[in-house]
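$ ./design --mode recover --in tokens.txt
reading tokens...
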């Protein structure tokens, strides 16, 4: 039986990260400056290193999503920097403009620790270990430069069952639909604490 990971951010920490993301978006779009974080009351958890993804949606439609899985900076810095990345450096979209700011809603996926130091990943030995809604997937594929990653909320947003989720991660990695079964691939799961602006 699978269980959800224990939340590591409380409500006030989530609210503060969303404020940092919103302030970052407004500051960067307005002036191309990176928001300093020294005036925010950062808790120990927000100063700890975590991977994070930031997703931007405009009127419910994806407008940008970028993050990193490695624990290379504090969670607060990861949220700030990936807000900028999602707004200006997602190659699927043009940069966010000031006229769009009021329509954009921000979602943060703060990655939970995994079994590997500095990474959120847990190796999957049997697909019965995957819990839809709890787990994101990462496929390390020998034929792909960076593998493929899908966040835990994707199956719910797309209406996918487990076979469709597995096919989706293979497509994201640029691999055959059943590549997760192949010897040159390793499938991982990971969890995130996901929260968003209302």
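writing sequence...
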């Amino acid at each position: 039986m699978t269980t959800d990971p224990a939340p590591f951010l409380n409500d006030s920490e989530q609210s503060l990260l969303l404020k940092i993301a919103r302030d970052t978006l407004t500051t960067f779009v307005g002036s191309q400056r990176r928001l300093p974080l020294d005036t925010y009351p950062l808790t120990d958890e927000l100063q700890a290193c975590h991977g994070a993804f930031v997703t931007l949606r405009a009127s419910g439609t994806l407008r940008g999503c970028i993050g990193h899985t490695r624990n290379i900076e504090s969670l607060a810095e990861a949220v700030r920097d990936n807000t900028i990345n999602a707004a200006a450096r997602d190659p699927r979209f043009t940069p966010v403009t000031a006229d769009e700011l009021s329509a954009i809603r921000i979602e943060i996926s703060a990655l939970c620790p995994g079994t590997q130091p500095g990474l959120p990943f847990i190796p999957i030995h049997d697909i019965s270990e995957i819990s839809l809604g709890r787990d994101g997937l990462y496929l390390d594929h020998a034929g792909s430069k960076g593998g493929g990653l899908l966040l835990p909320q994707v199956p719910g947003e797309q209406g996918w069952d487990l076979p469709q989720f597995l096919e989706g991660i293979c497509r994201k990695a640029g691999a055959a639909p059943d590549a997760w079964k192949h010897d040159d691939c390793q499938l991982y799961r990971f969890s995130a604490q996901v929260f968003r602006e209302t």
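exit 0
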